[in-house]
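In response to reviewer comment 3 from the previous cycle, which asked for concrete evidence that the modeling workflow produces usable outputs, we include below a single protein chain processed end to end. The sequence was submitted unchanged, and the resulting structure tokens are shown without manual editing.
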Amino acid sequence: MEISVTTEVTGDANLGRMITDLKALDGTEVEAGLFGGFAAKKAMWNEYGTSRGIPARPFLRTALYENEARFASYVAPYVTGIMNGASLATVPSALGPFMVQSIRRSIAAGNFAPLAPVTVAKKGHAKPLLDTGDMYGSIDWRQK
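The workflow returned the following structure tokens.
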């Protein structure tokens, strides 16, 4: 005995387009962080600490862990928009800057190991990860 199931979709000519667009979105990757140069090296030293006495100040991992659910919630309306005909480009171009701001908020929150007194004297303030603004300003996003 052979059982055959046939499904026919009628009534919505856009269903095929929506399925195609959502499949394309499923393979989209957006990442935020620092992508090269000296600022990226400083970020790595601060994220993981160094053997020369810089304690770990994990601003990138903190931003991810604290905002992972927020990133998914933030994208949900854009997925609905795609189902209603919006461009796929709206998702990365909205999520990328949102992720960058999440990383910057993690730095601004400053819940890190305190700076050494000599570092505070040199910088003139006790805010970790903020000195020249080079690293902070180099945080960016990209679509892979």
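The longest helix spans residues 59-83. We consider this sufficient to address the reviewer's concern, and the full set will be provided in the supplementary archive.
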